[in-house]
Amino acid sequence: MSQQPNPTSTGGDKPSTAKAAGGWPALGSSIKHTLKQAGSLQIARSLLKVNQPEGFDCPGCAWPDPQDTSAFEFCENGAKAVAWEATRNRVTAAFFEQHPVCDLRQRSGHWLESQGRLVEPMRYDRVSDRYKPSAWGDAFALIGKRLRAIDNPDRAVFYTSGRTSNEAAFLYQLLGRRLGTNNFPDCSNLCHESSGVALTEAIGVGKGTVTLEDFDHADLIIVIGQNPGTNHPRMLTELQKAAKRGAKIVSVNPMLEPGLMAFTHPQHAGAMLTGKATPISSRYLQALIGGDLAALKGVCKHVLDAEAEAPGTVLDHKFIREHTRGFDAFADNVRLTDWALIEEQSGLSKQDLAGLADDYIASKRVIVCWAMGLTQHKHAVPTIRMIVNLLLLRGNLGRAGAGACPVRGHSNVQGDRTMGITEKPGEAFLSKLGEVFSFTPPTRHGMGVVHAIEAMLQTPGHVFIAMGGNFAAATPDTDRTARALENCRLTVQVSTKLNRSHTVVGEDALILPCLGRTERDVTSCGPQRVSVEDSMSMVHASEGRNPPASETLRSEPAIIAGIADAVFGGGDPIDWQQHAGDYSLIRDAIERVIPGFERFNERIEEPGGFYLGNSARDRAWTTASGRAQFVAAEIPDLTLPADQVRLMTLRSHDQYNTTVYGLNDRYRGVKGRRDIVFVNQDDLAERGLVSGDRVDIESHYADGVPRRVEGFEAVAYALPRGCAAGYFPELNPLVSLASRADRSHTPTSKFIPVTITRSRTA
Ligand SMILES: Nc1nc2c(c(=O)[nH]1)N[C@H]1C(S)=C(S)[C@@H](COP(=O)(O)OP(=O)(O)OC[C@H]3O[C@@H](n4cnc5c(=O)[nH]c(N)nc54)[C@H](O)[C@@H]3O)O[C@H]1N2
Ligand SMILES: Nc1nc2c(c(=O)[nH]1)N[C@H]1C(S)=C(S)[C@@H](COP(=O)(O)OP(=O)(O)OC[C@H]3O[C@@H](n4cnc5c(=O)[nH]c(N)nc54)[C@H](O)[C@@H]3O)O[C@H]1N2
Ligand SMILES: [Mo]
């Protein structure tokens, strides 16, 4: 189904109120949030410091900052993230006295986080089923004891979420490897892992190849499987600028996302006063969920057909010859693929795909952006490789205004990987690390998220430490993951706010409260700052300005050093406390271990930071063949049994991952609830249901284990037949741990076969 940008729902009566993204309502709502959460003066001051050379990096998304940082380089959802951290509410020892864990377990994620900032270390007491205060020293001693007692270092699991700074991440991986394990599952495993795997195979580097400047030069920007209006609002500025100067923007998404259709810039008073929105997408292709591989292959087929009709005028033959391998096999495979199959499996007509192919051929410079709509699928890796195939056909890699742009999620998820937070570290990295710190790091690969959950399920006695995040809620198969955590000898959560993971405890459990990104971090050596890397490989400094939520809080590096001293007994050749006292020493070590960080301490002084570089951008292909690699991929058959539909789990406009700010999803027209499922109207009718009915949702996997959620409200929505959508994390209980993207092992959170039936509980 192809849609002209017409922001009304075609699927039903309910959320047909889709509006242009941005504008006054966006600004109004961020300010409301801000005032509700914190002292308004402090927040106003904080917001002025977001993404400024002298301020802190926005703890929201990983979209880069423009070089000319105007006074307000923040967006509605960035403002929410800042305000959420700066709340005046506190979770004190008295709170835990009042609320046993069995009570906390009954509360919603929204309620838990709304209680405010964690202020002191707490240890779980099984007898009273309550968290009780623990001195920092006692908490570290317990972790040290448990880590020393494990019979094998691979029984330790070090999870990382993507807000952790480069400095903390580097120290954290050093701790784990010094202990002897590469068990570093991280939120990347749940997020852009498929992009990393696909890009590394195809172009030798697992990161995006474009910089922000490229958006000023692109003639065509394809946004596929991403909802920037909600999740990367500052990207809309680039899309709007591009649209205004005549570049084409094509969206491929099963859901008609208002934020991809039109945009009003909240910082441009003119547009806001007149209410004039800039149309964004010039073409909107409503593919089937998981239909992107077929769709992209169809576009490639058109491009190859056009070349056959006018040889030498469409493909970049010189580029293909000099820079790539595998073209002939790829092209043969595409030619042999049937249009009927492409149309059936993508849900798009040959004509729709020809339109996109014509845009592609007419454009000199093309950028393709994507996010979770592609990565969290069984066929994610070949799908992303098909994006690269398409780009390679006309040399759209390593050229100004063109390239691959996986848009990252967490503000430092990319930096954490660069720092070595990975279960599969490279040999060069390990040997440098060993050389610089005089020890022998383990070379055995460790476990990513799903493998760690399986191991913890199977073998009791692991020690699980989480540097941020909300492991229990963000992972699939909620019940099994809970059992895996409960099987642990010790679970440790380093957190800023209370969340579901604190209610799922191992035999012993600790909550260690830490400073947030927005807060001042002063050690005995003076004020410290940290660094982060954005989605486009820019590394820059971040320095918190707000007073800490409590004097008791420690920084992440201080907590890591405390654990290290407790494990290694203080006599370790690595001086952990010294590093945690002076982050410039950590940066010196990073410079010695990781290429690209030469003169690190000096260069983060530069306003805007520095570019880490990307070999593929320079057309240096560090693949096995030394060339960029085309690959053929067969279109999978995604047909479901007649009674099933395919469900994707999404973010609302009022959440940051498992952090739920509020119960509205403004652009999609939803108010006051999250227990809903969006379904095509005809699919509802076929089941004797109408919008507003209560339904139960059950997923279906080969293991036959019943996984269901009950009493959700069905909402008719403009989705293709056979496609449904609902919110993450409420629907995570439906995702089987065994259902993963091929090769990247990313849980297939947007590829869930379900039946939707009238609720038994209604
Ligand atoms: N405000 C806010 N900002 C965020 C976050 C947040 O929760 N809140 N999270 C951060 C993180 S960690 C991440 S990873 C990013 C996530 O950013 P997104 O990837 O934009 O997030 P999702 O809500 O998961 O939305 C995925 C989009 O993909 C579409 N989609 C789903 N399946 C398919 C498919 O098969 N094909 C196609 N073509 N499209 C599909 C959905 O309709 C939806 O529009 O955002 C980051 N920024
Ligand atoms: N079904 C489904 N599941 C998904 C997804 C999906 O689209 N669908 N998306 C996946 C994706 S893309 C991601 S990235 C993961 C996210 O998974 P996580 O990164 O594990 O989860 P978050 O919700 O971002 O973590 C929120 C918690 O982090 C803590 N926190 C916040 N700031 C800080 C800080 O500065 N330091 C520390 N130490 N802690 C802090 C707070 O206590 C807060 O409660 O979820 C994944 N899970
Ligand atoms: Mo993410």
Layout of helices and strands:
Blueprint: E1 2-3, E2 21-22, H1 23-37, H2 40-49, H3 76-85, E3 90-91, H4 93-98, H5 101-106, H6 109-114, E4 117-118, E5 122-125, E6 130-133, H7 136-149, E7 156-160, H8 166-179, H9 193-203, E8 220-224, H10 228-231, H11 233-244, E9 248-252, H12 258-261, E10 262-264, H13 269-274, E11 278-279, E12 283-285, H14 292-309, H15 317-323, E13 324-325, H16 327-336, H17 339-346, H18 350-362, E14 366-370, H19 372-375, H20 380-393, E15 403-406, H21 413-418, H22 427-437, H23 449-458, E16 463-467, H24 471-474, H25 478-486, E17 490-495, E18 508-513, E19 522-523, E20 526-527, E21 530-533, E22 538-542, H26 556-568, H27 576-581, H28 583-593, H29 600-603, E23 610-611, E24 628-629, E25 645-650, E26 655-656, E27 659-660, E28 676-679, H30 681-686, E29 694-699, E30 707-716, E31 723-727, E32 752-758
Parallel strand pairs: 2-10, 3-4, 7-16, 8-9, 8-14, 9-12, 13-24, 14-15, 16-17, 17-18, 25-31, 28-30
Antiparallel strand pairs: 1-12, 5-6, 5-18, 10-11, 19-20, 21-22, 22-23, 25-32, 26-27, 28-31, 29-30, 29-32
Helix pairs in contact: 1-3, 7-26, 8-26, 9-20, 14-17, 14-18, 14-20, 23-25
Q: What compounds are bound to the protein? A: ligand MGD, molybdenum atom
User: Which structural class matches the secondary elements?
Assistant: alpha/beta
Q: What name does CATH use for the topology of the largest domain? A: Rossmann fold
User: Helical amount among residues, as a percent range?
Assistant: 25-40%
Beta content: 15-25%
* Strand numbers in spatial order across the main sheet: 1-12-9-8-14-15
Please count the helical segments.
30
